[in-house]
Design a protein that fits this description.
about 20% helix, about 25% strand
Length: about 80
């Protein structure tokens, strides 16, 4: 049973570079090689939503910085 509306799919552990295209003025080139916990797409595989699960490992300062960068990359790409 899926909690998503019909016409959407969820994919676990997706690399940012798989759905965000780097541009010449991209600020976080190396961060595109990080994975997100889940990616929700429509039937055309267009990204609609990124989900990150914040367990206790996300309390570490370096992990929080990584999370901020990933959030900013997704925001700049227009993906909530």
């Amino acid at each position: 049973v899926s909690e998503l509306p019909e016409g959407y799919a969820v994919f676990p552990q997706v690399n940012l570079a798989a759905f965000i295209e780097r541009t010449d003025d991209a600020r976080y080139h190396s961060e595109l090689f990080r994975n997100v916990d889940f990616l929700v797409t429509d039937t055309g595989f267009r990204p609609k939503l990124v989900i990150e699960i914040n367990d206790k490992t996300h309390l570490a300062p370096e992990r929080q910085e990584r999370d901020r960068k990933v959030a900013q990359i997704c925001e700049e790409a227009g993906i909530p």
